[in-house]
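Pair request: fold both.
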Amino acid sequence: MIETSQLRAAFAAALSQMYGTEVPAYTTLVQVSTEVNREYAGDGRWGSLDRVTAERHGAIRVGNAAEMADVADLFAAFGMYPVGYYDLREAASPVPVVSTAFRPIEADQLDRNPFRVFTSMLATADARFFDSGLRARVDRFIERRQLFAPDLIADARRIADAGGARDDEEAGDFVRRATAAFALSRSPIDKGWYDELAEVSAVAADIAGVTTTHINHLTPRVLDIDELYRRMTARGVTMIDAIQGPPRTEGPAVLLRQTSFRALAEPRRFRGADGVEFDGALRVRFGEVEARGVALTPLGRERYDAAITDPARWTDYFPGTDAEMAAAGLAYYVGGDPAKPVVYEDFLPASAAGIFRSNVDEDVRVCDAVSDSGATGPYSLDWMAGAIGHHIHDPYDLYQKAAS
């Protein structure tokens, strides 16, 4: 049997190869990340060089709960389960989506291959973004399309139940079909419909303006993101203006820092109102990269939420050593040993929204006039878990278990 961790590693590698073909600048990003990792590997306290270099986090977007449920079933075959609930509508730069992240949940599985996919679903029931008429049209459009072949999802459920594929032949076929489901489509896009959705949000257009889904970014992990930023810029790659997340300090790295190269104009085929097709371009995909630090406890996260609004006084909120962090109960360490930090495996909504906005959204249209409590829709962690038919794991529970 080919175990789910092996399938996951093959899936991540296949997606990476495909994405590198679709977005050549991604290959440069991976090359530079690998160079930096070799030079900054140190004592391996943030994971082995092999693990860090192979690590990827993908991002995809779907339109409704049925599509999200298919994603959950598909990723379960790769040993990836939903962890955390993210509401990017509430970020300083709002994006009309709610999200979860599919990833391994056991420490040994993360070590074998830590592939994650941040998966966002369009919040069409939120009247602040979609009036009733537009919502109805978007919902109909999404219901008519089929992102994943039924036999692919059926095979995924069977493989998940069995704990892996029967043999190399089945594994290869399954990984190939799963990867193809996230390839960028070359089918013509209805220009008028896409532009109408883009008036709400470029992310909304990317989700519901097309009949397929695709990898939006495939993020390598780097051990020194500031050095990565400098080297990419030196190569003439246009980066976004800032590194999102905590500031660089002399103390322990915490949570997650992210940046990216700017979304590139990619050639796409369009169809006008008269039915005539023509060539154009869209700028929706970008090259994100991340650096990961120690996972914070709930107390540490409270400190972080306060400190991030006052970064100049970071040291007033966080001590300068891992030993002090551990003693204060601010972060997770294996067995309480400050030399063994538990790596943060999840995401920061504000950083994700900041990356989105820096790349694709100038302004998101929000209807300020809508104020009643039902206008924002039913979305919550419990709602999403019920909608996709899978338990959504609490990241703090997973970090506590990893530290025990």
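--- second member of the pair ---
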Amino acid sequence: MASKTYCWALIDAIHEEMSRDETVVLLGEDVAEAGGAFGASRTLLESFGPRRVRDTPISEEIIVGLGVGAAMTGKRPIVEIMFMDFLGLCLDQIFNQAAKTHYIYSGAFKMPLVIRTSTAVEMGIGPHHSQLLESWLGHVPGLKVVMPSTPRDAKGLMKAAIRDDNPVVFIEHLAMHRVKEDIEDDDFVIPIGKADVKRKGRDVTVVATGLQVARALAAADELAKDGIEIEVIDPRTISPLDIDTIVESVKKTNRALVVTSSLKPFGFGSEVSAEITERAFFHLDAPVARLTPPFAPAPFGKKFDAWLNPNAESIAASVRSLLG
């Protein structure tokens, strides 16, 4: 066991997979000489050289297109799009090329492509760098979308994503890059599409993603002082969604709250809420609740960001409201 940050857990995962499989390559802006814009590819150029760790031009469409072509011709590319907000510049390559290639060629081509991207929710850097757009991606058949909330999950899911023969969008929360956790030294892979029950409880099911998982756990500690036990579920994978684990929890607790850092209209929380209602309607003692930021662009300034987003206090308040 060793204590690793979220950032170093990702570096370790990529290093191990590049050592295991010579077809794995890393491409993106500043991933080589600079060691990544956020330090998340440090040591990789020194270990594997410029043929496998390559800086690219500042063109998101070219970066993903390069990855698509490399995947079709035998490589397992990891491409980095620095901020999730920039996905709009390469949506055609993601939605119409990466996601559809396997299908339109009747399975003749695999698409073992990992698209790394980061969200800077609650870092105070404004509307062009702070969006969480996982719902866009989850709407596309052919894409897998993962969003780990802990260093161990980040490492295990990155290894799974690299080994997968389908395109995987891997969403990292920059605000968690310095979070530490003890991680075992042996090779382990966390399966894509399997949720994790972070805390068991009997009174309310709280489905939380990304940055909100730790806050839901903090809320659970506070609520426990009053005898309220919430079950905290981290989907870890946005698509495919492990709805069975969520529904089984709701059948036990009879109440559900979905907490995300992304917006409410047409979002991930809406999808989870609809699935619970369709599959567990007669087990519900209250309507499924959603807790999200307001439907507005992210402001500049950490104080505003923290005020607008869900936190342990607002999660606890929402749970109390569900319980009447």
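Observation on the second member. The first strand starts at residue 2 and ends at 5.
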